[in-house]
Structure formats: C-alpha cells, structure tokens
Amino acid sequence: MNNEKENKETGEEKEEIGFMGHLDELRKRIIFAFVGIIIGCIISGFFIEDLMNYILLAPASAAKLSLQNLQPFGIPFLYFKVIFITGFIISFPFLLWQIWLFIAPGLYENERKWASKITFFTSISFFIGVAFAYFFMIPSMLGFAATFGTDKIRTDIDVNAYFGFVTLMILASGIIFEMPMVSYVLAKAGLITSKGLRSYWRHAVVVIIILAAILTPTPDPINQMFFALPLFILYEISIWIVKLVEKKPKDE
Predict the structure, then answer these.
(1) Which of 59, 92, 158, 230 is the most exposed, having the fewest neighbouring CB atoms within 10 Å of its CB?
(2) pLDDT per residue as tens, the chain (252 positions)
(3) Of 199, 182, 171, 195, which is closest to residue 238 (Cα–Cα)?
C-alpha cells in the first residue's frame, strides 16, 4: 500500500512538473515572439518615412485620391499603427518559428521532418498573399473608387480609414493564401481528403462569393470577382496538394 501511494504521489509530482514545464516553455516562446515583434517595429521605425511615402501612400497617389486627417492626433497614431503592422509582417516568420519550437517536442521524429518545412512555406504563402493584395487588389479597388460617381463630388478619404482598408486587404489576403498549407497539414493529420474537398466544391463556391462580398469594400461585381478568383484557384491547389499527400506512403 505504501509503495502504491508513493508511486501515485511521484506520478502526480511528475505530471505537475511536466505541466509547469510546458507553461514555462510557452511563456518563453511568447516572450521571444514579443521581442521579435519589437525588433520588427524598430526596423520599420527606422524606415517609417519611406514606408509612408513609397509604400503606404503609393496606391492612393497612383489612383489620384486625396487623403486627409480628420483627427487631432490622427497622424501620430497612424505612424504608430504603420510601425506596428509592418513590424508584425517583418517578424511573421520568426513568430511561426516560435510556434514550431513550442510544439516540436510533442511530435514524433517523422512528423518533425515535414513540420519543420511548414514554417518556411507558410511564411512564403503569407508574403505572396501580402504582395498580391498590395500590387493587384488594392490598386484595382482604389482605381474603382477614384473613377466612380460624378465629377461634381470630390472624394476626400480619411487617411486612417485608408490605412484600415489597406491593412484589412493585406492581412486578409496573407491569411487566405495560407489555405494550401492548412490543407497540407490537415491532410497529413488525416482530417481531410481530396475526395471530400471535391465533393464540397459547390459549397466552397458559395462561401467564397460571400467572403469576397464581405471583405471587398466596393459593391461592384468586378472587384468582388477579382478577390474571389484567387480563392477559387487556392481551393483547387489545395485539392491537388491533398492528393499528393494521399499518394505518398504513410509513415509508421
């Protein structure tokens, strides 16, 4: 009886130590991620004027839109937001790496081989989505906003509202372009199949159209389809990626 009691107490102590160890590891990764964002913000802070003039305001200038500040401290807040969002984008691969380092000890050896590659390809997918939004989606939508309506009504846009629009498009596009990588992970885990994705194609079309209508600020169908078309392509790419995963022999 005493031995059983001692073994039980020892097991509880080990479980408690293991739980506390996970909490310490999580705290460390959160701190590192926070430090990574700060470093990214410092880097973006050094180039804030170039970020404002040649990146953030460039699409509005190309569309010949007039921006104005309507808040007493609108410009300082705008600069802070630009620094933070840019710092987050710069540190995004490092944040993914911290997530990977946290979950890696709980994976099998064969899982670590493919999971370590996810950090790289997920970052690439995110940056491709950001680039697509900046170079294609945003200019198209702003061009429509600049040419729509009568010449007797001048279009003056609050610069903070403009920043919110640009940020929403960039982050939404970056996240949406993660669809193939998410499909890869789910297929590796055996949670989805290519046949299942293909069978839900019609449902996906409806969801994509609704999502495009929500995220696209302009009501015209051209811009909505311009946003929806990459989603259709990404969904199809996801199906083929899942097929490739299914063809590979499963590890023991």
Answers:
(1) 158
(2) 555 545 544 545 445 446 677 788 888 889 999 999 999 999 999 999 999 988 999 998 888 888 888 888 889 999 999 999 999 999 999 998 888 888 777 766 666 666 667 778 888 999 999 999 999 888 888 887 777 766 777 777 889 989 988 998 899 889 889 888 888 878 877 778 888 888 888 888 888 888 877 777 666 676 677 778 888 888 888 888 888 877 765 554
(3) 182
| DSSP code for 174 | H
Cα separation, 110 vs 222, in Å, equals 46
Q: Give pTM, 2 decimals.
A: 0.80
**What burial class does residue 126 get, using C-beta atoms within 10 Å of its C-beta: 0-12 exposed, 13-18 middle, 19+ buried?**
buried
Q: What single string gives the DSSP state of each residue in 105-127? A: GGS-HHHHHHHHHHHHHHHHHHH
* Alpha carbons within 13 A on the beta-carbon side of 202: 1
> Measured between alpha carbons, how far is 90 from 39 in angstroms, rounded to an integer?
9
